[in-house]
Design goal:
By secondary structure, the protein is an alpha+beta fold. It starts with a strand and ends with a helix.
Length: 125
Amino acid sequence: FYRCHFGLDIPAGLPEVGFKVLAEDREWKKGELLVFCDANMHEAWNKSNKDRYILVFDAIRPEFRSQKRKLVHVITASLFLQGLAEKIPFLYKLPLFIQGGIHFFARLCSIVFIPIRNFIAQLFA
């Protein structure tokens, strides 16, 4: 994926508010797009006392377009697991095979429920 961050409200620049991809520090700017490969190690920080607002979206790299459906389910499951771990922090401390099992179950649920959701949405459109 190309992960895209569009700066909506950025309280400060580097070094107070920033973003790192591999070894490169970057900063968000209001109204500008920051794009990077999601496969690279990355991190963000906000050491200011104000909130930072970023619109985040992904673009599928051309070589993976044929796998779009599979990627949607993997990402949906990953977001579910991340959200669950924010509410239940000890999940990050579980063995990787248990985290992988939760991710696998979430991916199966995604495969079942997304088409059902789409079908119901078409009925009421």
